[in-house]
């Protein structure tokens, strides 16, 4: 773990609902996300990530555009995707868009590459789901070559080849900060190490400590490849309120609505109150007062040796004002408390 843990926030631009239950218009959700990013900058959050989706329950399909709007109203916070679905996009265009964001934001752009947990983008952009793995593997290989920011010569079977091709714009620093999002496959862990790209673990269920073997595998792979150490990050959902009871009560109906909607598509049983409470007490839901959430984040950081933790603060129709309050508490109380706990601790903090 680096000397100072970075603490970020992620959102998918979940479509919220008004007091009468009507869905908030997509445009208003997008404007709300911009305001949330601006607040995150103001209260000291290190990173703000916006996910890419192509379905009715999420408003953001073009994260880089939303991030550019946030960049124009902020000064210090780093801005990135969470994640960019590389499999159904073009690596050259992804690099160009985020290199442009990097220039517009004064070097604050990041891109997190992944396959995504939804598949709507594949038919939308004309890709065959039977090539799910091959598309990501080949496009990641090209993106890794683009990160060198020099002439690119590359060939593959699913995209046109490049011969000594320059790609513009280039970043001022010569390096676009890039992560690979990993859901828990050893092969994905080793691949991230092989390309020399930092790894971000999506831990959305179960005990966070169960991902320690993946963190250790990544570090061992880097050592065996004779590569320098690289950071590991974690992305997990959560919610803040002044008290534990208020946070749990406030989040539950909205988290359940999101979880059950996705569950119906995937054959899961509806989420019970007991399952929700279990995930908060012993799993990967960071819900509660600032002290409770800070202790849980510090414990995860200590157990896994991570360099960054990103809290996914949006959840289904959870109202915008509740998310703004959560962001404020995260920045003003959780972040300094996490760093205080880690600085004080010479032994692992209990989860």
From TrEMBL:
Domain of life: Bacteria
InterPro entries: Bact_Lucif_Oxidored, LLM_Atu2307-like, Luciferase-like_dom, Luciferase-like_sf
Pfam family, one: Bac_luciferase
Luciferase-like domain ranges (all copies): 24-304
Keywords: Monooxygenase, Oxidoreductase
SUPFAM superfamilies, sorted: Bacterial luciferase-like
Signal peptide: none
Protein name per UniProt: Oxidoreductase
Species classification: Bacteria, Bacillati, Actinomycetota, Actinomycetes, Micrococcales
